[in-house]
Design a protein that fits this description.
Blueprint (H helix, E strand, L loop, with lengths): L2 H24 L5 E5 L6 H17 L3 E5 L6 H8 L7 E6 H10 L11 E16 L8 H10 L5 E4 L5 H13 L4 E4 L3 H9 L5 E5 H9 L4 E5 L25 E9 L4 H16 L1 H9 L3 E2 L4 H22 L5
Parallel strand pairs: 1-2, 1-3, 5-6, 5-7
Antiparallel strand pairs: 3-9, 4-7, 4-8, 4-9, 4-10
Helix pairs in contact: 2-9, 4-11
Pfam families: TctC
Keywords: Signal
Family: Belongs to the UPF0065 (bug) family.
Length: 324
């Protein structure tokens, strides 16, 4: 390569980088879109809206929540992955489409390890094992005994093939040495409706989606899948306390930007998210639905993504689960 060609290449690189660097200094100067990859009213949507309100105040620009549901979160995730890396289109990502879907789907229109820059987790929560009114089980041991008596006789609902609910049930089968029948639904809402109606027996529901039904007495909670009891359901034991320590599952929701977003923008977003999750009002809103507010720096969040991907990939492959 000649000296002139080298200079031209350097000039072109600078010409591409300079606008991003300049834009980062004034960021944000227009509305930001926070993409929720699930329909309105779901857990991710419930968490996204108070976070967006707080970000709007701290960043001085509207943060608009936009729902792009479908394919267990992968449609919304793909939209963000292919958006401009300028900080104006962000993903409220979840364990599903970032850590699980890459192994579940034969092909994806994005690569979670290359197409995103994690900013911060904003909340995490466990699943809760709940049974409907037709199941006479007061404890996890009772339910497991029934499952062993009638292999595949118990039905476990989920929000879809390859969802967190589904994979937690797969983990339960492995750890407890039982076989149950998986009944996938098109979303957690319809699954919980059928569960309360007695049409299916049990479900590893996300805690925020089920806590109101549990407190109303429409569902009976047997155990939570976190490392400690939930403040929202202090009388419900953990899976570890109930004899199955291997069934440990927590789901996170976090803000993720497209790869290539300037570091200055990532840092500004991270600090704004830290302020948001430390706000007493936000903490109260999230705790009320059984979610634990939390902040993780970008590098720590990236490490969690890698670890979760490795764990769920191994389980999915072992169970032979595939989603077309």
């Amino acid at each position: 390569m000649t000296g002139l060609t080298l200079k031209r290449a350097a000039w072109l690189a600078a010409a591409l980088i300079f606008p991003l660097a300049a834009a980062a200094q004034t960021y944000p100067d227009k509305p930001i879109h926070l993409i929720v990859p699930f329909p309105p009213g779901g857990v991710a949507d419930i968490i996204a809206r108070p976070i967006a309100e707080k970000l709007s105040v701290s960043l001085g620009q509207p943060v608009i929540v936009e729902n792009r549901g479908g394919a267990t979160g992968t449609i919304g995730a793909s939209f963000v992955a292919h958006s401009a890396p300028d900080g104006y289109t962000l993903l409220l990502g979840t364990t599903n489409e970032i850590a699980m879907s890459p192994t579940l789907y034969g092909t994806l229109p994005y690569d979670p390890t290359k197409d995103f820059t994690p900013v911060s987790i904003v909340a995490q929560f466990p699943n809760v094992l709940v049974v409907g009114p037709s199941v006479k089980a007061a404890t996890l041991a009772d339910l497991t005994a029934q499952a062993k008596t009638k292999p595949k006789g118990l039905t476990f609902a989920s929000s879809g093939q390859g969802s967190t609910n589904h994979l937690t049930a797969e983990l339960y089968q492995t750890e407890a040495g039982v076989k149950v029948t998986h009944i996938p639904y098109k979303g957690g809402g319809p699954a919980l409706v059928d569960l309360t109606g007695g049409h299916v027996d049990a479900m590893f529901a996300t805690l925020p989606s089920a806590v109101t039904l549990i407190k109303a007495g429409k569902l009976h909670a047997l155990a939570v899948t976190g490392d400690k009891r939930s403040a929202a359901l202090p009388d419900v034991p953990t899976m570890k306390e109930s004899g199955l320590p291997g069934v440990f599952v927590t789901t996170w929701n976090g803000v993720i930007a497209p790869a290539g977003t300037p570091p200055a923008v990532i840092d500004k977003l991270a600090q704004a998210l830290k302020q948001a999750v430390e706000d007493p009002g936000i903490q109260q809103k999230l705790a009320a639905v059984g979610a634990e507010p939390m902040y993780t720096p970008p590098q720590a969040f990236a490490g969690i993504v890698r670890d979760d991907y490795a764990r769920w990939s191994a389980l999915i492959k072992k169970a032979g689960i595939k989603v077309d």
